[in-house]
Amino acid sequence: MAVLCSGQTAYFSSCSHRSFSKLVPSSMPQFIRHHRVLASNCSPNLAIGRSHRRRRSSSLYVTPSTTSLVPVEHSESTSVGEITRSDFPILRQKVNNHDLVYMNNAATSQKPKYVLEALRSYYESSNANVHRGVHYLSQKATTAYENARVKVASFINASDDREIVFTRNATEAINLVAHSWGELNLSYGDEILLTVAEHHSAIVPWQIVAQKKGAVLKYISLTADEVPDMDQLKKSISNKTKLVVTHHVSNVLGSVLPIDEIVTWAHSVGAKVLVDACQSVPHMVVDVQKLNADFLVASSHKMCGPTGIGFLFGKYNILSCMPPFLGGGEMISDVYQDYSTYAEPPSRFEAGTPAIAEAIGLGAAVEYLSGIGMQQIHDYERDLADYLYYSLTSVPNVRVYGPAPSQITKRAALCSFNVKNVHPTDIATIISEEYGVAIRSGHHCAQPLHRYLGVNASARASLYFYNTKAEVDRFIETLKSTINFF
Amino acid sequence: MVTLLPVVLDSSALVTRLLLNPNPNPNPNLSYTHNPFFSRSLRTHPSVLRCAAAPLLASSFFSGSSSSIAGSAEYSTESLSLRIRRISNEFRSLPESIDRVKRLLFYAADLPPLSEDDRIPSNRVTGCTAQVWLSARIDAAGRMRFAADSDSEITRGFCACLLAAVDGANPEDVLAIRTVDLADINVIGVSGYTQSRVNTWHNVLISMQKRARTLMADEESGHL
Predict the structure, then answer these.
(1) Which residue range or ranges hold the Aminotransferase class V domain (chain A) (predicted)?
(2) B161 annotated active-site
(3) Please, which residues have CB within 8 angstroms of residue A452's CB and are 6 or more apart in sequence?
């Protein structure tokens, strides 16, 4: 790993973990292929250079080292999960005398040492406010912060890092679009299309704006296979449609939607598309240029990064026409007693001191994931997803929501389910307290979907690349014991 | 109506049932229909024997409050405090969280179901991961009378404990309860934390206090 680290940035050279180098193919990882331009977050004494458009001071950017990457070191029989687990100290603990089995990754992911080290390093050697000083630390912090934006842009293949706006989380990113773009572009009788499977964060902001503007929310229901009905969505798009709000991967159903097709249909009538990618960006290659969506949001904490930071991707020509969401420092150009002029995006939407360390941590998370390779993560998780689904559906009296996997239908590595005659919260409590298995229960911020499914709540096991089939086996075994408990 | 196994109906459980249900359900034959997955099987399933490991302090906990609730004229702030302390002591004596869960399930088994008339949206306790219904009224003696139910057995256990503490208390005393006083009945997480959104008993207690406040205001304004 040390070789790989030094091959990317000074940040990598400072990281101590070695496990994910075992997964790195001899070819360059996606992140490095796309952007060989990342600056060190640590060292200010680096050469300057950048392959495409620069933002703010060009002195913030540096050229990477060209050290070659190491080949795969590990046995091919070892899974991604088994190799990467050692990067996550939190997973080593025991809960109620049992090895922790963490399967609540759709709620939040765990953080690798690499990200923890990035946070520690920032506070130990770079802490300062960004864009607010010419002194050494301020430049260092600003460099690291802006490089995090470049890393995120690279990760989702945005054509311009000005298209990445840092927010507190995906929820704030959606609120930003709702209140800024929505206030400006929605009017009486306009329609916003959503699926019934949206997360509350993709519903409530639009309810608020729609009530103000007299717009209408229209919901797309599910097919018999419990997937949002794409035929219905296509037919529902009309000249009244101004926006389609849709998830990429459902946090309850585990289904994956064809965003590129949805975008084509929406654009044919001039409507915009906002993609909730919270459950896709951490788990698969997401290319915003290929998807061609107008807005896309994701949260850092679901992708190995810190809490308190997320991002909005918006096409620059759209962002540049949007008014500010919040007012304050950093987002202005000039302030007079009676009025102000505003900075260009993304600064226009980042009022006040941002979550600097968290953004840098997100940048480190992106590096970490890219080091493994998002396609490798996705391939591994697909296998885990099927294993989880078929293991769970083999348990008597268990009902799993969402589509059955097939050659055509691919599920995410999560299953929401109910057990006949036992409340999901009781299941989640017992399986945690008695066996140390962490799953979630409740409506998963998707009450409309649960009502549609005819239940008030469900239990959910959601996996990430550091989970293993052995853990799935452990989960199933303890679930059976929990059911017998009742 | 499910028949209880004899082993569940031991003396302490009978006391429990009596105390938790000072006003027996007028229609005990009502069954659960809201949740198709819900059944009352826990109360009769043989595995309940494991859940219903005999409460160490159940006898003193409930017998101590028996006279207070039965003889409501003697109910006082002190007795409410005593009840809460006994509940806290009982759960504090169970260091393993799974044992606290089992204790809750034990008490849940004897909580009478809420009537259908009371399982209405206005009685829903919001913010819980399970569905909880809470009915409240002030009796002729001016004391708060609560009944509660849930589609989760563990939550029913929480409700049973809360009812054992506050049912029959003066409204002012209900309002004076602090959530930290009942922190020991937490069954998950770190002992003493009280603010999680998934902390059902916390939401139920807050709801009890809101209802008490509203009923007091109604009484003062003559809207009974």
Answers:
(1) 101-475
(2) no
(3) A196, A221, A222
